[in-house]
Structures are given as structure tokens and as C-alpha cells.
Amino acid sequence: MFRDEINIKFQSGKGGDGHVSFGLDKKPNGGEGGDGGNIYIEGVINEYDFSFLKAFQLFKAGNGELGGKNRLSGANGQDYTLKVPLTTKIYDLDGNLLLTIDKVGEKKMLLKGGRGGLGNFFYKKAHGVDLYRFSYGKDGEAIEVKMKLELFSDIIFIGLPNAGKSSILNELTNAEAKVGAYAFTTIIPQQGRMDNVTLMDLPGLIEGTHSGKGLGNRFLKHTKSAKVLAHFLAANSEDIKKDYQTIREEIENLGEELATKKEIVILTKTDEISPEKLREQVKTLTSIKNKRFASKDIITVSIFDDKSLESLKDFFKKSL
Q1: How many angstroms separate the CA atoms of 110 and 1, rounded?
Q2: Structural domain of residue 313, as residue ranges?
């Protein structure tokens, strides 16, 4: 099940206690305890959402080991690194943003482990008194956080349900999005990689999405990173102008951040109409007043035409 928000817990490691010991000369030689392990968060490309986590799951770093004889320090506790998808934002329970992970390989510390305690050698060296004096290791830090996901993409696929977005995503990338001849086959965002470009298919928008109808409004936060909106329209539509304007109006109502992104138009299912009808549909689109795209920003494609799919790949890359 797709999950883009979750609460989990972290515990960094406790520092090891300092040691009390004496050499053959009766002088203190107890070493320091090791530091507790830290908690890190790292961004990766091969995680899609938080479905690999359990709510309120606890992740712990290792404790530092005790100090040893002959001034030997205890080993530090093992760090723990949680690998998360992009872009992950981590908040405390008061809503304060603690970390943002938005790059692959980016690794940030969330909690620091407790400092190891001092052995009796340190106190003898520092003070010259109290041969049995040592200190305990410091406790690690503990926190419960809320993690929120804003999926990364270069190009967002938008359009009415059953406009062919999932089929194109599957053809161009390694995605395995569900495809069906009915509306709302896609109910969660689907990502795929086309060479070095990340594409994402959003669940179909409908008239009234901005006021809570349909599925698109729920996933609006996942559009923030996208540079381009790929607006999909079925070429066999009976009223392609209305189809375009319906989605364009929803985009405008969903906010300026989305509405001002570059828009390109993809006419799909071209194998289902005649060449004459296709030319008519393109002409209708290019005649729309106050549109946010030019004729050069329109391309036609069929999943049964390899040449058109290759042209679409180049079209996407050039749009960036």
C-alpha cells in the first residue's frame, strides 16, 4: 500500500562507561568508554515510498563499549542509517522541520550518540587525586518524528482519466503501472526512469478536483519538484477542446506553483482515428486562445508506433 506519511521513532546509542583499573605500578590506567552510535538519514533512488516501514517502528543505533585497561578506549557504538526516498521531510511532533533529504546519496545526522564516560586514568592525570574516580557514559537521544514524502520527478503526467498516461509511462520506462480500459485505473502516483529523466503519472484529474473530487488533489504535494507538465489528451475524444480546458481550469485552481510550470501536450491513441481527424484535433488545440503552449509544444503518439515513441522520448528531453 502506497504510504507518503508515517510516524516512526529513533534512539541513538548510549556512551560506554569509563573504566577503573590499575597497572602493576598501582597507578590508574582505566580508559574511556566509546561514544554511542549516531542516527543518519540518507536519500536513495530505489525506494519509492514509506511502505517498507511500520508505523511507530523504533530504529536504534548501537551503544558504546566500556573503557578498558591500560588506557584503552571502548569501541564506538554502530551508527544506524535509514535510507529514504526523495524528497523526504522529517518533522518533530510540534511540526518543526528537522531535516530535508532531496538528493541521492545525501546523508544527514538526525540524532547524535551519547558521549563515552571517562576512566580513572583521566581523573588521575587531570587532578592527581581520587584514584577510583570515573564517569558514566551519556544517554543517547530519543525522538518520535513524522516523515512526509514529496515524490521527485522531472516531468509530471496529467490529464483526464483514461487518457493513456500509464500506457505511455510503461512504454518509456521500467514502470509497471496498472493499465485498464476504465477511469481511475491509476490510484497512486507511479514513477519511472527514462534514461536520466524521472517521469511520474498522477492519478487522473477530473472536473472539481480542486474542491476535493476525484483523486488528484490528494497528491498535489508530489508535483512540487517537476519542471514540466505533460498534459495528455486522447486523440479520439469527441470534444478535445473541452477536455483540455477542463484540466487546465483545474490546474489553475490548484495553485500558482502548479499553474506556472511549463506545459506540453501529448495526443495519445492516434491509431484509433484517421490521419484527417488527427490533423483536425491538432488544429483545434492550436486555436485555443490564452493557451499556455505553442504548436511546437504538441506531439502525437501511439503505443503501437515505435517511431512515435522514440520521438516522444526526444520531445520530453528537449522540454527540459
Answers
A1: 27
A2: 155-319
Handedness of CA 44, 50, 54, 59 (dihedral sign): positive
Burial of 317 from C-beta contacts in 10 A (0-12 / 13-18 / 19+): middle
- Confirm if 11 and 60 have CB atoms less than 8 A apart: yes
Per residue in 119-144, pLDDT (tens digit) is 999 988 666 667 899 999 999 999 99
pTM of the model: 0.77
**Residue 314, domain CATH:** 3.40.50.300
233 has pLDDT over 70:
yes
Rounded Cα–Cα distance for residues 219 and 149 (Å): 10
Q: Are residues 183 and 205 in the same domain?
A: yes
Are 280 and 221 members of one domain? yes
Question: Which residues lie below 8 Å from residue 267, measured CB to CB, with a gap of 6+?
Answer: 233, 234, 235, 278, 281, 282, 285, 298, 299, 300, 301
- What's phi and psi for 242, nearest 5 deg? -65, -40
Q: How many CB atoms lie within 10 A of CB 114?
A: 25
Same domain, 125 and 213: no
CATH value at residue 127:
2.70.210.12
CA angle 234, 158, 173 (to 5 degrees): 90
Q: In terms of domains, do 175 and 108 share one?
A: no
* φ, ψ for residue 108, nearest 5 deg: -130, 145
